[in-house]
Amino acid sequence: MTEEDLLILVLEALHSGPDGFRSVVRDLAASHPATPARRLEAALQSAAREMDATIRRDGSPTNEARTARRLAVLLGMDIDRTGDNVTLGELMEWWKGTDDFFMRL
Fold this sequence. Notes:
Layout lengths: L2 H12 L9 H8 L5 H18 L8 H20 L5 H10 L3 H4 L1
Helix pairs in contact: 1-3, 2-5, 3-4
């Protein structure tokens, strides 16, 4: 799965409703376990930049963009803890045994 493919899926999830962000990382990890986790982190950051460029409200970032950035930061922290080359599937297993934030979100 390319970063562009992930970007599209992230944008769709974030725009799907007020709670669209809750399961986007977990759902993408479950459906694309072989994908490098850094690729999803980059897609979340790209989504935030794209939303900021397209839908600025009152000159400040949108809520969706802020949420995408927060998810990217949290995902990046987990990647840093587990190793740069971790896949989404490996990260999901780590979440189940070590830090279940994304499993509960």
